Amino acid sequence: xxxxxxxxxxxxxxxxxxxxxxxxxxxxxxxxxxxxxxxxxxxxxxxxxxxxxxxxxxxxxxxxxxxxxxxxxxxxxxxxxxxxxxxxxxxxxxxxxxxxxxxxxxxxxxxxxxxxxxxxx
Length: 121
Fold this sequence. Notes:
The protein has 121 residues and is an all-alpha fold. It has one domain (3-115): 23S rRNA-intervening sequence (de novo design (two linked rop proteins), Up-down Bundle), CATH 1.20.1440. It has helices spanning 3-23, 30-54, 59-86, 92-116.
């Protein structure tokens, strides 16, 4: 098994768990519950989709599944920014989650570019 892939999968799982823990701290208001559900779905989806990508039937299928991972990570980023701007959570975890989210997006965008051949210099 590819050690790097396993490490990345574990990192995505840790990110999902951290997002869930964060979401559980949001207010129980209508908006808080809505955003909590949204961020749990989008924050856990990258790990699930990456697991699917690792079992892809072809290189094209692998690339497609990675684009879904990026879309879910971007959705999570927007949800985090909405929560931050609404000041639902003034928690130290916010900065940590945003940073990890951005790093994961960068990793997957670079991987997709490499698959497309545009990652070469």
